[in-house]
Amino acid sequence: MLVTTQGSYKLITRNNFNCIDTSLVTETIVNPAPKAGFTVNSPSQCFKGNSFSFADTSIISSGTAGRLWSLGSGDTSTNTNASKAFAGAGTYSIKLVSVSNSGCKDSIIKTVTVFPNPKADLIINAPLQCFSGNTFSFKDISTISSGNVSRLWSLGSGDTSTSLNFNKVFANPGIYSIKLISVSGNQCKDSITQNVTVFPNPKAGFTINNSSQCLTKNNFIFTDTTTNTTSIWSIGVGNNQTTKLVSQSYINVGSYAIKLFVKSVNNCTDSIIKTITVNPQPVIGVVTGDISPNSTALPFTYSVLSQANAAYEWTATNGTVQSGQGTNSVNIVWKSKGAGSLKAKITNSDGCSDSANILVNINPVGVYEVKTTDNIFSNLSFKPNPFNNELEISFVSSSKEASKLVITDALGKEIYTKTIQSIIGDNNFMIDEAANFKAGIYFARLANENGFSQSFKLVKN
């Protein structure tokens, strides 16, 4: 019998023979004990941001009850509600002891679990790359104290991946935010974000003043039109240059590949190649013909060395081209005695040209020999012609004067020059370098101080 009220009570006892006895007793009150109980907001939580809330739900039939919490890590509390954030992953026992105002007790134990969070981490091969050829390699190196980790990559371009390692090529320059979310088996998460940058590549470009030029006096000017870059030129002659504007003359005919390599401040590069052409230069050589013709109505013939794929143009002062215009040989009719000049111009199929001029002294009709007052050499000859190793020039002069001897090859290139100081009468001079001439055709011109000249065709065996 549960006695809940203090007082005197009569005890009657009876045996199996129905014999009765009575006694008077005084009883002490038995106080009610509390019923311990509590709730937990979430008994299983991830370590990162864990926060456990405990609410005391203990009951007692009468009287009041207090409490003592033991929170599993040495911490205690007497509050109705207790909270706890655990400093490490693990399983913790939470004990609540309920104590009535009469000192009666009850207790209850529940466990809570703190799951470990993964530690998100990643490796990027090169976070700064140029657009051309960009390839970013991403590697998940996340860790966790126990259990497994899965992942979700967000690549900043709308693409995602769940791979441990993978490569990505970005379709456009820009800055991309790379986010890795690491997820444990208990759905505990951690994340890390890093940026990668795809720098734009410069667009190389340059201009050329004239991409097709003749050999003589050619001058190519290359101008880099790329902005905010450094320039490295390869212009086909071995001397690379780094200026924005480059000029170059070429000494040989042919096509040259001009390459411009540019580099931005972010070390991104681009290049472009253009081709230029140095066209062959025709060399007209020496105009041959009588430079002391008679002023008759008969035409006098003048010519230059014939060249393939070339057009010829002749002009004369104090004379008229009678026939042969456009060819390497023309007939000229001189109009009157005195000074005249003849110009021959040759133009090849590439538009390159060369010209030669001779001064002509036109004699009166019937005069066939050169007057000494005109300072034209008489009996001028080269012996032998054709020649081998020795070549001699001889002429008769009526005065002492300095003359210039020039010998050119068939292309008009000067290979021998000598100043000759003549004497009155016979003059003979050896051309000391004749033995060094290569076999072929040559043209010799002897000109005096007054500009009058005579020309000869020579042949070296």
In short:
The N and C termini lie far apart (about 155 Å). The chain is mainly beta. It contains no helices and 39 strands.
What can you see in these coordinates?
The chain is built from no helices and 39 strands. It is mainly beta. Strand 17 (174-184) and strand 18 (189-199) form a beta hairpin.
The first-to-last residue Cα distance is 155 Å
Rg computed from alpha carbons, rounded to a whole number of angstroms: 58 Å
Instruction: Count up the helices.
Output: 0
Beta content comes to: over 45%
| Unreliable spans | 1-7, 365-375
What is the structural class?
mainly beta
Secondary structure: elements and pairs:
Blueprint: E1 7-14, E2 20-27, E3 38-40, E4 44-46, E5 52-56, E6 65-70, E7 76-77, E8 81-84, E9 90-100, E10 105-115, E11 122-124, E12 128-130, E13 136-140, E14 149-154, E15 160-161, E16 165-168, E17 174-184, E18 189-199, E19 206-208, E20 212-214, E21 220-224, E22 229-234, E23 245-248, E24 254-264, E25 269-279, E26 288-289, E27 300-303, E28 310-317, E29 319-323, E30 329-334, E31 338-348, E32 353-362, E33 378-383, E34 392-397, E35 402-409, E36 414-421, E37 425-430, E38 440-447, E39 453-460
Parallel strand pairs: 4-10, 12-18, 20-25
Antiparallel strand pairs: 1-2, 3-5, 5-8, 6-7, 6-9, 9-10, 11-13, 13-16, 14-15, 14-17, 17-18, 19-21, 21-23, 22-24, 24-25, 26-27, 27-30, 28-31, 29-30, 31-32, 33-34, 34-37, 35-36, 35-38, 38-39
